[in-house]
């Protein structure tokens, strides 16, 4: 056992959150204008959308619980300085829905949820903001569990856990030197391997001189966008497997470090998607596959850990028409939650977590093979599989 959750004896504090508000969100740009939540294009029948506030700290946060059919909702806590509250709402609704499908297709007994805190993660009172927000999660009584995400790291998760029983992926959950990001990277690496094997198998059908078995990544050219903790770890694994790396990040020291450590070639962030490579691995923020970028992509496979990589579902169909295989992001980045969330429903172990993450190879293969056989976008097939598991449980 490498982590435990000790229940608090105290009763939950007063409810700080407000739920099920149909018209909301006054923003600086639209003062006096309301947004109809239930007709929001990303609403998708969310069970709860909860708006959280702390007057003293000017805490503004949103918790979205999308579906709890398979079990308590689970998904990370993102701290980001959104330009508007409307942007934050759109993001949390999309991310929450994505967690429902991720947890389902990963075979976890968990539903989907997500939360966002509208704030700069570098603000000096970050710990106090996290403590205040965690009380809102506590009032849900285990209906929603949260964890790390953009702007909230494992040590921050331990701060959240000071006032809340429903936090996973904490630094204290793992032995020294082990983190959730390593499992996320392992899942991304495993998914990429499965994707490469699928692409080369299909290529061999058209050209017998192409090797049908391409599980060896040696000499493969991979463009990695985003060199945060998980993106860098993926680069390390790819480098050790013999892949040639092209990298980009908006933070130049991260780029310099990857160039030095892995012999990577560096390119501007706005050109990484257009590189002449075998695989494109988006590992930054979402929406990279859009009307402006899709025509420039030369890779034969896209497989990375960024959430919501497709700007719209139509872009998945466009990739298929161009002969570009796509590993759905909510499958490729499922390794972290598969490993860390075991503490919610079972006795966790490092060996069990690793075995669970490695099972992604077979899941990715199944999705890509079915998508190829049916002539459909892989994301559509994966969502259908995940949705069917939820429907069967209802």
Automatic annotation (TrEMBL):
Domain annotation Glutamate/phenylalanine/leucine/valine/L-tryptophan dehydrogenase C-terminal: ranges: 177-394
Lineage, broadest ranks: Bacteria, Bacillati, Actinomycetota, Actinomycetes, Micrococcales
InterPro entries assigned: Aminoacid_DH-like_N_sf, Glu/Leu/Phe/Val/Trp_DH, Glu/Leu/Phe/Val/Trp_DH_C, Glu/Leu/Phe/Val/Trp_DH_dimer, Glu/Leu/Phe/Val_DH_AS, Glu/Phe/Leu/Val/Trp_DH_bac/arc, NAD(P)-bd_dom_sf
Keyword NAD: yes
Bilayer-crossing regions: none
Gene3D superfamilies in the record: Leucine Dehydrogenase, chain A, domain 1, NAD(P)-binding Rossmann-like Domain
Family membership: Belongs to the Glu/Leu/Phe/Val dehydrogenases family.
Family matches, as Pfam families: ELFV_dehydrog, ELFV_dehydrog_N
Name of the protein in question: Glu/Leu/Phe/Val dehydrogenase
Alphabetized UniProt keyword annotations: NAD, Oxidoreductase
